[in-house]
Amino acid sequence: MRISVIGCGYLGAVHAAAMAKLGHDVVGVDVDAAKVDALAHARAPFYEPGLPELLAESAATGRLRFTTDLSEVVGAQVHFICVGTPQKRGEFGADLKYVEAAFEGLLPHLGDGDVVVGKSTVPVGTAEDLAQRLADAGPGATLVWNPEFLREGFAVQDTLHPDRIVYGVPEGERGEKAKAILDEVYATPLDEGIPLVVTDFATAQLVKVAANAFLATKISFINAMAELCEATGADVTSLADAIGHDERIGRKFLNAGLGFGGGCLPKDIRAFMARAGELGADQALSFLREVDSINMRRRVRMVDLAREVCQGSIVGRSVAVLGAAFKPNSDDIRDSPALSVAAQMQLQGARVVVTDPQAIANAQEKWPDLTYAATAEEAAKEVDVVLLATEWAEYRELDPVELGTVVRTRTIVDGRNVLDPAAWRAAGWTYRALGRP
Ligand code: UDX
Fold first, then answer.
1. Residue 65 phi/psi, 5° resolution?
2. Residue numbers annotated as active site
3. Which of 208, 348, 365, 377 could bridge 147 with an S-S bond, Cβ 3.0-4.6 Å?
4. Which residues are noted in the entry as substrate-binding (predicted)?
């Protein structure tokens, strides 16, 4: 099939390359000429494991190209909208300006029988509005809502082998035709037996935010337990293991620590609350306010713990922060708990050095006042305390004996509960963690 993908960020770039891998003929469109240039040369404009290989493989087939010219979508039958929906400045709601621009830009190029597929995470009601406007504009195209659930760091795998595929389609013959076209787009994963849920617009839009709200709630639940563990001397990692053995609960997403960040969970739960308020259903989601505040408290707790191990004051103390990305295997620093802790520590008078295997360039751009080092060893040179903020594999595998030779004081705060306390203590370190004795 001939496919266009509008918006080539974390979502669209991977989606475009994956669609070409599935055998489709794909054009990716983005307003950012530098991004288009990189993608056109099979270079990923951000760090995502497996993406460079997928881009190269798809480019070699001649089925994948990128452009800044939206008119090049003409000839494609299916048009995916993959633009971002960031949080509005100073408000909880989602900013739909990129969705608006993509939709309005696409309209004049649509033909009869085309399918416009919304993938961006939007406030429920957006699809209905766009479908109406599409009908009013009259090109004979149909809108479908097909949310995306990919995780950064696993985006290629999640796109090619998703846990499920969801379409929200309009009722009647128009909806059936559009469904048949999407079935063709996703023929390979559907043949592999990936579950398909076909539903209405409202449900399809809600599925995405409901899934993210559940994941955020799971993380904040275990972080609330971490607070109780700290108050009682219990160990939240053993607690998570024990409750996680119950299949109804499950161990995944029960890792207590610095909490969630990134471009999705924080802004999605806020936009969800804002939309519920507009719908007069704010009470239904008032618990998400608590989920958000438990999450934000983790960052404060991390700074407090650092202060505690520095005998009550961090003024003038040297601190190494391991990690800048919001999670490992990503260079994304949006709402990064690691950088928020680093900035807070610096604001409170500490001398902070941040390191990260992939995210330093992005961090430097957004937080130019912080100091950066290329490696953990360099960052930790002569410091009073080391903070592990993002659980990259290379930080999990740090040798406490070796690192102990470069620091001034052997003190580490494990913000992700990934180090072995016994090994670090045996090497002479004071080991502290969130939610562990
Ligand atoms: C998330 C959803 O998982 C994905 O389905 C959706 O499409 C987009 O949002 P992502 O933002 O890439 O994906 O990251 P995710 O792996 O969900 O992690 C989010 C944050 O939660 C990270 O900061 C991570 O460190 C934190 N986290 C995750 C925890 O603190 N504890 C956990 O147990 C799991």
1. -140, 165
2. 264
3. 208
4. 149-152, 208, 253-257, 261, 327
Q: Are 14 and 44 contained in the same domain? A: yes
Question: Which residue among 122, 154, 251, 264 is best mutated to probe the pocket of ligand 1, counting the most ligand atoms within 8 A of its Cβ?
Answer: 264
Q: Decide: 106 and 79 in contact? Cβ < 8 Å.
A: yes
Token output for 266:
């924080």
Q: CA–CA distance from 166 to each of 59, 148, 212 (Å)? A: 28, 8, 15
Rounded Cα gap, residues 139 and 311, in angstroms: 69
Q: What is the CATH number of the domain that holds 373?
A: 3.40.50.720
Sign of CA dihedral 203, 209, 215, 217: negative
Contact yes or no for 52/42 (Cβ under 8 A): yes
Does residue 373 register a pLDDT over 90? yes
CA of 42 to the centre of ligand 1 (A): 27
Q: Based on the domain organization, do 355 and 310 belong to the same domain?
A: yes
For position 269, which CATH number holds? Answer: 1.10.1040.10
154: Cα within 13 Å, side-chain hemisphere: 10
**Sign of the C-alpha dihedral computed for residues 426, 432, 433 and 437 taken in this order:** positive
Q: Which residue segment(s) compose the domain that 158 sits in?
A: 2-199
Angstrom distance (rounded) from CA 275 to CA 94: 9
pLDDT in tens, 390-410: 999 999 999 999 999 999 999
**Binding site per annotation, positions for NAD(+):** 30, 35, 85, 121, 152, 267, 334
DSSP 86: P
Phi, psi of 98 (to 5 degrees): -75, -35
pLDDT tens string 1-12: 999 999 999 999
Same structural domain for residues 384 and 268?
Answer: no
Q: Is 377 inside a domain boundary?
A: yes
